[in-house]
Specification:
Na/solute_symporter; Sodium:Solute_Symporter_SSF; Na+:solute symporter; Sodium/glucose cotransporter; sodium transport; 526 residues; symporter activity
Length: 526
């Protein structure tokens, strides 16, 4: 990178901070900070939802998969995400919006106190918080790895720079700042991605390379599944991503909660699904063609995309592509930070402290911002250890840890909103959660803590979710725990319009976890 590239990068950071400061004017209370006050347009929510699912792992770990295995990087990653979000557009998006619009909650998990009980809510909140620290730590490590390729600065310095900039704008402006910066990041990535595609096509002989290049690439590069990414893995990943990208990891849930209605949330999800189906193809093609242009230096080829950009792009445009790397990671990390802050201040803090149950707007906003900073600091500290033997490497954290542990946390949260699972109560939720976590440990580690190598990847990521799902259903059938209050919660989430459910829900005040009295609509019959 030269001075022109640095100017582009520094200018980008400046714009992000400016957006955060501008968004600060739109944040008057906790609802504004965490759910944009329910005023976010559906198209902005959809773009934000799409962008918050990316990170620099796309340009490191998945670039390595694309370099080694070709098309399977799209078929076993973004395609199942697109399908999963398409399913969730009808199944989950409108119900998640009703958590805010009808139950008046500011955190995705806030309704669990009454849907199950406080212990269940706390188990999901704490385990999800710890998992997200690991997940976001992997994202910081990924962007720092790319930054080190271009600038030569150390991993720790790269983590500190990106984390600090992200902390400024997302702490000041809340979800509004996240969404608006993600819109800007999408526009930047649009130009950067298309520029990279055009230059690679020119290098390979022109537009016709889109269909002629495949005979020159390594054998099997055009196969939909390859290596450890088998059909079984694809099906497991589709199952997992349907839960994860429809709110199971909380930050996507906030995008649906932020729209003005359930219908807008559905439109938001459909836009995100279309973007996931189309845009990754533009980003992936240069990665698929990379074996013809560069020779990766790392065993997992995670440096292939960075090497290709350095070799092919002129200065200025190189800076724009590097900005694209940053934009994806900062979008995901800032959205995760906001979601975690919501869960901590609305669900965890009120259980730990009586004073937190009576926070006013000023105190609640201060707590939200402090918890956002604390989460970012912890994830940045962990990022410096992401290549240790415990975590193995960046892509292992993203695929194995996040995909494997997400299911036990997401199952009670997501399925708890559906009428069909109304009989599954606290026992079903806690048993499925605990069994899923144990399944993850025993499929990935031996009793002495050493990493298992005998279990296929698809089983490592799929078994915890499958076991949690089965137990959630079976325990709910064997020991039904539906009550009129729990049925009323479910009915409110599943209905729109006026009537008893709508009237009752509108009258319910927002209460954080640990507050006295259940937050349930009265008078609603199943």
């Amino acid at each position: 990178m030269n001075s022109l590239d640095w100017a582009v990068l520094i200018g980008y950071f400046g714009v992000m901070v400016a957006i955060g400061i501008w968004s600060h004017k739109r944040v008057d209370n906790v609802s504004d900070f965490f759910t944009a006050g329910g005023k976010m347009p559906w198209w902005l929510s959809g773009i934000s939802h799409h962008m918050s699912g990316y990170s620099a792992v796309m340009f490191t770990g998945y670039a390595g998969i694309a370099y080694q295995y070709g098309v399977t990087s799209f078929v076993t990653w973004s395609l199942p995400i697109a399908i999963g979000i398409g399913i969730g557009a009808q199944l989950f998006a409108p119900r998640l919006n009703r958590l805010r619009s009808r139950l008046h909650v500011a955190s995705p998990l806030e309704y669990l106190k009454n849907r199950y009980n406080v212990p269940t809510q706390q188990a999901l909140a704490w385990s999800g918080l710890l998992l997200k620290i690991v997940d976001v730590g992997a994202k910081w490590a990924a962007i720092a790895t790319l930054l080190s390729v271009f600038t030569g600065i150390s991993l720790t310095q790269g983590i500190f720079i990106t984390g600090t900039i992200t902390a400024i704008y997302c702490t000041v402006g809340g979800l509004w700042a996240d969404a608006l910066t993600e819109l800007g990041q999408f526009i930047i990535q649009l130009f950067a991605g298309i520029a990279m595609l055009v230059i690679v096509l020119k290098e390979l002989g022109g537009f016709s390379a889109l269909w002629t290049v495949w005979d020159k690439l390594p054998e099997g590069h055009a196969e939909p599944t390859a290596g450890p990414y088998t059909v079984t893995f694809l099906l497991a990943y589709l199952f997992i991503k349907t839960f994860e990208y429809n709110g199971g990891m909380w930050n996507q849930a906030q995008r649906y909660m932020a729209t003005d209605s359930a219908r807008s949330a559905t439109r938001s999800a459909r836009l995100s699904a279309v973007l996931w189906l189309v845009w990754p193809v533009v980003l992936f093609f240069p990665m698929w063609a990379a074996p013809l242009l560069v020779e990766a230096q790392k065993p997992d080829a995670s440096d292939s995309y960075a090497l290709m950009t350095e070799q092919l792009l002129p200065h200025g445009l190189l800076g724009l592509v590097v900005v694209g790397f940053f934009s994806h990671t900062m979008a995901m990390c800032s959205s995760d930070a906001n979601a975690i802050a919501a869960v901590f201040t609305r669900d965890i803090a009120p259980v730990l402290s009586k004073s937190a149950r009576s926070w006013n707007n000023r105190s609640g906003l201060l707590a939200a911002r402090v918890s956002t900073l604390a989460f970012l600091a912890l994830s940045m500290a962990l990022a410096t250890q992401i290549n240790s033997p415990t975590f193995k490497d960046i892509i292992s954290v993203v695929i194995k840890w996040v995909a494997g542990l997400m299911g036990p946390i997401a199952i009670p949260f997501m399925l708890g909103m559906l009428r069909r699972f109304r009989k599954s109560g606290p026992t079903a939720a806690l048993v499925s959660w605990a069994a899923g976590l144990l399944a993850f440990y025993f499929t990935n580690y031996n009793f002495d803590g050493s990493v298992k190598t005998s279990v296929a990847l698809q089983y490592q990521v799929a078994l915890p979710l499958a076991i949690s799902l089965v137990l959630y259903i079976v325990v709910g059938f064997i020991r039904p725990e539906d009550t009129p209050e729990r049925d009323a919660i479910i009915e409110t989430i599943n209905t729109d319009g006026e009537g008893p459910a709508g009237t009752a829900a509108a009258a319910v005040p927002s209460q954080p976890a640990g507050a006295d009295g259940p937050v349930v609509p009265k008078g609603v019959k199943d």
